[in-house]
From TrEMBL:
Record protein name field: Beta-glucosidase
Transmembrane segments: none
Superkingdom, natural source: Bacteria
Listed SUPFAM superfamilies: (Trans)glycosidases
EC number: 3.2.1.21
Catalysed reactions listed for this entry: Hydrolysis of terminal, non-reducing beta-D-glucosyl residues with release of beta-D-glucose
Amino acid sequence: MPVTTSSADLARLPRFPEGFVWGAATAAYQIEGAAEQDGKGASVWDTFVRRPGAVRDGHTGEVACDHYQRFDEDVALMRRLGLDAYRFSVSWPRVLPAGTGKVEPRGLDFYDRLVDALLDAGIEPTPTLFHWDLPQALEDEGGWLNRDTAHRFAEYAAVTAERLGDRVKRWITLNEPFVHMSFGYGFGVHAPGHALMLDALPVAHHQLLGHGLATAALRSAVPDAQVLISNNCTPVRLRTDARSDEDVAAAEAYDILHNRLFNDPIVTGGYPDLSAYGMADPEWGGVVRDGDLATVAAPLDGLGINYYNPTWVTAPGDPTAGLPFDLAEPQEAYRRTAFGWPVVPEGLTELLTGLRERYGAALPPVWITENGCSQPAGLRDQERIDYLAGHVAAVGHALGHGVDVRGYFTWSLLDNFEWAEGYHQRFGLVEVDFATLRRTPRASFAWYRDLIASQRS
């Protein structure tokens, strides 16, 4: 299906600086399959998908896109795109089946082959060490509620870096620790499926402690490593009819919980005051220990930002329900993705410039490590093209306002297993027929290819 992008359309997009990195992203459990092959241990997602009703239509990631067997085909697609970099995640239980102790060499061999294939294609490998597939053996010991998991994460980072660090220089420690804490431990809609509400807050600190310990391990194994973390961030907005003091306080509370809880300690070395909104006592119940924040705040080479849409909030309708805010729908008539998410490209500019205003010179260089949309199945995905064009332009506007943005990774290269939605949400530049596993590039694939080429010309 040949598709040619209008040069006039591309010309309307900003010109990005020389050296700006164009990439695409995936995650291990969402594409690899091979769930029980070559010594891989069980992850919390392998367990969660077997829980009745946990995932739509009982879908699992046991096969997914079978990237484990077909990675050469997928790297060939990346070469056709002209990617500068590919962000993938390493499966912790594929490398350390029990989360600690014995290393599974066949797991490391797979990532070894993937890294070599990427480099042969002229694509920089950018692995994420944790994209939510915690080894089940560690979950059995408390998972991220257990402080010890942070230390096991650092061990895993060291093992992976010692094998791949001669060729891999850019590393991402965690993906979206807010989402993993809230969906996996707070509301129970993702693995491991705990519904602890605000009692899940220790998960935030233990993940960030693990990030800090892993940063040190990566730099020990790879002295010239560039280390990032990928945080899911959102501009927080009030509904147009919500302007009371209580509404404003709700927006501030949500901003703290979603954004500042995971950015402040990394950038400034301290947590925001959760106690002012009744979310935690000032001392975190002893969860935060002496020296932890210095570990968490180790200087980073970049801050990864995953952006999908703003979040609207109001004051809680039931103050006894446990959260100091209610999520709300916008009153404005935004276009929606197939997931029902409002399409607000200017929210990305707002988010990036807001980070610069909040943190000033302390803000590390920013990387957009995820941005994309789910659209209905089919190859003529003009709505996805429009979405990407709007958000790429939004990044360009942020650059124009002085934000140091170094790269953009679209989500996702392939249709994949979309967590609790199973295979019902399609984010890929490449359509995957999950019955045959045939890959077919969409119109958006050609658009992104032409965008990258135009930025180099």
